[in-house]
Design brief:
mainly alpha; Zincin-like; about 10% strand
Length: about 110
């Protein structure tokens, strides 16, 4: 896998996934974040850590889907896990890779 070309490519992929998942985004930001890979608000605003741009695309895809699904399901319960699995398959492997990266950088996904 390769890293993202730039913010524009990353944001375009967020919009593609939002369309696929039928969720509405009201704001989209890629910015420095010191303690998280991403966050979302109930109003539909998404913020992604700009460090994602340097990671493999599949990890970015995982974070994108993770956050977008929170616009429908605000927790990590059974429904959220089922949706993650339906869209990404064995999504836990991405979680493990991000945890390893977070241990290096002390950054985490919430």
């Amino acid at each position: 896998m390769t890293a993202w070309r730039d913010r524009g490519e990353f944001k375009a992929r967020v919009h593609e996934w939002a369309s696929k998942l039928d969720v509405e985004i009201t704001g989209l930001y890629v910015r420095p974040m010191s303690r998280k890979w991403a966050s979302c608000s109930t109003a539909g605003t998404l913020s992604f850590n700009d460090e994602l741009l340097d990671l493999d695309r599949d990890l970015g895809e995982y974070v994108i889907v993770h956050e977008l699904l929170h616009l429908r399901v605000p927790n990590h319960g059974r429904l959220w896990k089922s949706l993650m699995r339906a869209h990404l398959g064995d999504y836990e492997r991405f979680e493990e890779r991000l945890r390893a990266k977070s241990a290096e950088d002390t950054t985490s996904i919430q």
